[in-house]
Amino acid sequence: MIGGKYKSLILWKLMTETTLRFSQLQKEIPTATPKMLTQQLRELEANGLIHRHVYPVVPPKVEYSLTNFGKSIRPVLESMYIWGSDYLNNQGLQVNCSMTAITDPQ
Amino acid sequence: MIGGKYKSLILWKLMTETTLRFSQLQKEIPTATPKMLTQQLRELEANGLIHRHVYPVVPPKVEYSLTNFGKSIRPVLESMYIWGSDYLNNQGLQVNCSMTAITDPQ
DNA sequence: CTGCATCCTTGACGATACTG
DNA sequence: CAGTATCGTCAAGGATGCAG
């Protein structure tokens, strides 16, 4: 369920923003191609973690938000974030909250 | 750093057992081939999460244990375990603490 | 703007056999 | 007992182009 490369980051962004458009997610996660972003968003939706709201307008507008089930994993992501922050601080590094900081550099 | 398929499970086993031999880990994680188990153990060691103690005896005896750094991720694994358990309970399922329960069935 | 279709590369992982 | 060596597969992910 959390197998994808960007899923945890998507969820993390949605934790703090409550609602995000597709283009906003692209800016937040520039390393993810549109294809991958779409794919992982659909999988998160299929697993009931996020909700996809399509506005029937031109140009298209789609907003993503967490479901209650999605919100339930907040403690997990928080503990991961805390652990990662502590680790970086011990290394004398800054937490920049981007891909390179939250995810694994290895 | 936690990219491998069995790493979180290895760490989890070491959390409760404090020290485990290679053969014990094989029994605990039967789906992992010796090759994969070795590989992931070496990576965890390289990342400073576990310690590998080799006894110079015949037949060989190797024990694995958590380093202090490895112990520091306990809160992360615990929150994941709690979240997973809650989810399974809501589904009316039992927690069996094996691969299929802790990791993602998807 | 928000995707989908297609092709391609890569490396994680599995299977099997062998060893000090 | 605790691995190593080799080969093979397969699917995740990237690049690019097109579309409603």
UniProtKB/TrEMBL annotation, chains A, B:
Occurrences of domain HTH hxlR-type (ranges): 1-92
GO MF: DNA binding
Keywords of the record: DNA-binding, Transcription, Transcription regulation
Pfam families according to UniProt: HxlR
Record InterPro entries: HTH_HxlR, WH-like_DNA-bd_sf, WH_DNA-bd_sf
Domain of life: Bacteria
Keyword Nucleus among record annotations: no
Protein name in UniProt: Transcriptional regulator
Organism placement in taxonomy: Bacteria, Pseudomonadati, Pseudomonadota, Gammaproteobacteria, Orbales
